[in-house]
Amino acid sequence: MPEEVRDEKATQGIQATLDVMGGKWKPLILFILLHEGTKRFGELRRQLPNVTQGMLTNQLRELERDKLIVRQAYQEIPPKVEYSLSDHGRTLSSVLTDMCGWGYKHIEFMQSIKSGKE
Amino acid sequence: MPEEVRDEKATQGIQATLDVMGGKWKPLILFILLHEGTKRFGELRRQLPNVTQGMLTNQLRELERDKLIVRQAYQEIPPKVEYSLSDHGRTLSSVLTDMCGWGYKHIEFMQSIKSGKE
DNA sequence: CTGCATCCCGAATGATACTG
DNA sequence: CAGTATCATTCGGGATGCAG
């Protein structure tokens, strides 16, 4: 397989991952659902003080569309909606963990450089 | 450690990773440098037909700022500049590979759903 | 050959008010 | 409580022309 094609295919995979969890709040939402299980809309909202209702709804809709989370609505008054990771969403766990780990090493690396300069 | 704090820290790491490789062309640039080693500016440009000069320069500058790649300029006429992964940049390899792998599984997963529906 | 500066656009994000 | 609608804003991405 020519290099260009292989590179392009590799990037497709990475791009797909980025498309799915690249939103500004998606990583945090996924992380919360991964570690704390099912959450109601209001609970998520309270745990994400800087996210507006509209944005939260938006991000949740996209995650649902991409089959990473499951939305369960109860037809009650008052309304009640619960979100949880799907089985497919749980397969993101290792990637999420890896990125988290690398990110921390990166932050430390940058700080070590900074302090070394000054 | 309270849940909110742990979540926030976890997200910091993920966010740092996203900041660093989240640009539209960065994953591909990193992948090429990872697999093919040092490249001249013009070579990269030819391998990324859809990226404008300006964007390529931009992305390379950011990657350099984040210490993922090394820029070596030769003071010649005509100018010659080579880019290569730094040691730190190479530590991204496993993350890149993981994301690539998950992305592909995701693409297949979505296609299996689509074909199942129709 | 390589890179910078400038302008421009559309998408993503965010604030606010309203509804079942 | 959960969600929609609308409008403002910010920002990444892209085109073009110039420069060392």
How does this model look, in words?
- The structure is a homodimer of 118-residue chains.
- Chain A is mainly alpha-helical.
- Chain A has a three-stranded antiparallel β-sheet.
- The first copy, chain A, is 67% helix and 12% strand.
- The interface between A and B is large, with 44 and 44 residues.
- Chain B binds a DNA duplex (20 and 20 nucleotides) through helix 3 and helix 4.
Poorly predicted segments of chain A = none
Overall average residue pLDDT of chain A: 92
Radius of gyration of chain A: 18 Å
> What series of H and E elements makes up the topology of chain A?
HHEHHEEHH
Of all chain pairs, the largest interface belongs to: A-B, 44 and 44 residues
Shape of chain A: globular
Could you describe the largest sheet of chain A, including whether it forms a barrel? 3 strands, antiparallel
- Provide the β-strand percentage band of chain A: 5-15%
- Secondary-structure-derived class of chain A: mainly alpha
Domain HTH hxlR-type (chains A, B): 10-111
Protein name (chains A, B): Helix-turn-helix transcriptional regulator
InterPro entries (chains A, B): HTH_HxlR (IPR002577), WH-like_DNA-bd_sf (IPR036388), WH_DNA-bd_sf (IPR036390)
Pfam families (chains A, B): HxlR (PF01638)
